[in-house]
Amino acid sequence: MQLSEQELIRREKLEKLRALGINPYPAALYPVNSTSESIKSDYEEGKQVIVAGRLMSRRIQGKASFAELQDSTGRIQVYFNRDEICTGDDKTLYNDVYKKLLDIGDIIGIEGDLFTTQVGEKTIMVKKFTMLSKSLRPLPLPKKDAEGKVYDEFNDPELRYRQRYVDLVVNPKVKETFIKRTKITNSIREFYNDKGYLEVETPILQPIPGGATARPFLTHHNALNIPLYLRIANELYLKRLIVGGFDGVYEFSKDFRNEGMDRTHNPEFTVMELYVAYKDYNWMMDTTEKLLEKIAMDANGTTKITVGDHEIEFKAPYARVPILEAIKIHTGVDVAGMPEDELRETAKKLGLEVDETMGIGKLIDEIFGEKCEHHYVQPTFITDYPKEMSPLTKEHRDNPALTERFELMVNGKELANAYSELNDPIDQRERFEEQLKLSEKGDDEAMFIDQDFLRALEYGMPPTSGIGIGIDRLVMLMTNNASIQEVLFFPQMRPEKKPLQLSDNEKVIFDILKTEKKMELTVLKTKSDLSNKAWDKGIKGITKQQLAKIYREEDVLFVEILK
Fold it and tell me: Is 414 annotated as a binding residue?
């Protein structure tokens, strides 16, 4: 492992601390009794406090020093005075440990008394400090120049998402996002618990990936010697619980879909699903309006939320637009009752890429998604989806070609999906069989037939309404974040590229190639100014690591960089 100069210096300090008999990573409990926030909100001059946190800045002026300590609630100023800390003749603790062996980023414990500085800053007078954890890597802290301009901010998304632990330390607003996320999930729980609904847990590993149309992740259970899937939805298990006699159940579930990644999709995501007996999708729309009003108030103190350039109003009521009407409004085409071949040609005329594996449901979904969805910025219920799009949904009471389903659109994206649930086991079997035909045509997102779920329905499921709400997208809206990576602590990332490990000879050759990209081999050798032996080792090394290739053009050998 190659270490930077600063990392080497910090490791030297670590050893010096140990030589002084100071354990840089003590095991004993540290008796914290205050936080930076509690000190400021309940300030009492002269009060004795014990706090712990990360040293984030300091200004050493001889035998005194002001510093900032950051804990989980914020920052507090602390004042180190040599004579307060070292009351005897031995000044090592201040002169050596504090001034020379502590670094920004170290975690320390402080015991001291509160006082207010001449400029009115609430501060802790340090009486004793304890090393709790030595930081071996420097924090990427932003800096300000004389004009107050900030630079060297830790704002590269690749680094921030990969090193979220650093992001949380140096970018306080990031922590605020995740605190608000917890407020949102707590608000939902409170809303449903007050109605008497039961929070439950259902399997993540499933023999059949049911409840949605999506491509699953496949794994294998060694002891049972069977394939298993990471769940794409928890719907069918929650409905089994309604069959079993619960009137209302909900679950915050981690779902997994083996599909593309972008600013609004992560392969692992969180969904809240609710199922309530003796209700329908009209009731669910009313209930969802009340829920979102409450969430907005609990998270932000208002029902009006700023999202990008838009102000979104979550106060009820929301518009309700049938999906076929929405397509007609935004494309001028009436697709109601249109046969599959004609619908496919219509989609092509609208400029959409379609193929023969796509049935009526997928074609309508594609048209709506590309031509209509982005128009619905304010919360809007898109309702009454064709039966082909909704294999788990009850047939519409007024039109057998449609189903009692809605999707809630906000800021041009789907936030929730809900049904009057299909509870006719014979109809459900036929719908599954239609999905099987789509699978045979090559649709790898078509639903599997879940025989056990059909058996459950045959015992009788009461009329039920269900909804799934995407928690990640909900948090994006409530925190004004455009990327799903901003609301996930640890979003999925591509494998981290390993730093190049080059010998001195390889580095000389590679540095020349980085500038020139492509050179005649003899010119490169001359320019490298290496001996024959060093050249041979160097060029073999970079070609073996596939950093460059050697090839012939006519009678001349060339070297070209590959990375």
Answer: yes
